[in-house]
Amino acid sequence: ELSSGINAEYGQPSSPAPQPSGLKRPKQWSEDVEECYRFQTAGYRDIREYCHVQGIHDNEVKRWPHNGYIKMLLSRKGGFIYFDKARECQDKDLHKCKLFNYNTENQ
Prior knowledge:
Layout lengths: L5 E2 L4 E2 L8 E3 L6 H11 L5 H8 L7 E2 L6 E5 L5 E3 L16 E3 L6
Antiparallel strand pairs: 1-2, 3-7, 4-5, 5-6
């Protein structure tokens, strides 16, 4: 095991990712919905899980400078996923997105 908490054999974190305490589905688009949609497209719940699995801090996620939207993520399936500067989560895709809640007392 590496000192960063990453399992050297599998490249996965040695401790479990924080678990959500609940979820809801968005009724309308927002920047938070867009953020979650991009992480979920890459195979992650949200920024917490992505950073935990990748062993990075949230400020290391590649973003577009003019609006802060996610620019690129490492997919769970391998390879990179690149996102456009503009909104990608269309109204017809809102039902696919999940917004997770976390119990902050245990975090």
